Amino acid sequence: MTATGPVWDQIRQGHPPSAGRLGEVLSEDAVRLGDEGLAAARAQLAAQVLGAGPLEPYLADPSVTDVLVNGATGVWVDRGSGLVRVPCAVGDDAAVRRLAVRLAGSAGRRLDDTSPYVDGLLPGGVRLHAVLPPLAADGPHISLRVPRRVAPSLDELGSWGAFDALGLTVLRALVHRRVAFVVSGGTGSGKTTLLAALLGECHPDERLVVVEDVRELAVDHPHVVRLQARPANVEGRGEISLTALVRQSLRMRPDRLVVGEVRGAEVRELLTALNTGHEGGCGTLHANTSADAVARFEALGALADLGPAAVHAQLLSAVRVVVHVRRSAHHRYVDTVALLAPDDRGAPAVVPALSAVAGGMRRDRAWAALAALLQVDDGALR
Fold this sequence. Notes:
CATH class of the largest domain: Alpha Beta
Largest sheet: 9 strands, mixed
CATH topology of the largest domain: Rossmann fold
Radius of gyration: 24 Å
Distance between the termini: 74 Å
Helix content: 25-40%
Number of helices: 14
Number of strands: 15
Structural class: alpha/beta
Strand content: 15-25%
Shape: globular
CATH superfamily of the largest domain: P-loop containing nucleotide triphosphate hydrolases
Strand order of the largest sheet: 9-8-10-11-7-12-13-14-15
């Protein structure tokens, strides 16, 4: 009898598959397989029934950040230098669909013809997105975002070419002086990685309250409290939004309030918190350039019924610095460190203080103001 036969027998009897039950299925083959063979067979069966099947080796690879399945046509992974196609046999469209449905079930979500797309979190922190035909014309598609197991430090990011010694000094001072900031950038540009490294520079006595839609921040700090939003269930009930969690976080005595990604109406609560004594707050923001940060805040403010004037008034006193990251064909790096300051009309404007150039970062228009804000000795850095 094949291994899958007994597994399905257990499922039909109302027993969901588990690591223990899968071990029982193969126990009768222990003598034939031997200890090493039995362990390998159990691992393979667990990957097929409980895990990500043929994708499991890539999810276990610490260098992989993304795994993408385009139906039966192929699998691509990103190890930090862009997407590369890999030789991974996922089967036909029906096999990919079964894999997507199983992963959705592991995330506690539903994926079928009546609910043809899903966004959820797998055990272990992998973020899942899947979409079925006819929404995806070329077969089921699966996107997996793999969180970093260990957060790189600022020193490590610098050694990888994300910024030079001047950038390291400025970023470290940004945290130590408890200046409120946002890290902006496009998808996959390294916003979360940089924010985690910056939070690792916080004093060990500080209490960090981190609010996220999906847990992604891997922060190397002894006192981190994590709050994670909850989507509605299949009946449309039980949702806990980021807006609600930001409100709750303010009652938890945060020394620093961190919003993993500011993406909706929670921007109102964040700006309010940063304007009421919560120094050193921070988060990430999707934006194509640092100059787009203000327009992005305006758009998010509209979701919270805030007009541009209200957003401008709060933004100028809440956020002082924008750190913009960018991704090239070979690596991720800090493109700009900029000040948020009023322009001639009193509206917030993003003024570059450091800008990336070949070989490092150069001082820009707002450098003197930034150095004064961070109490950086410019003379010692030259």
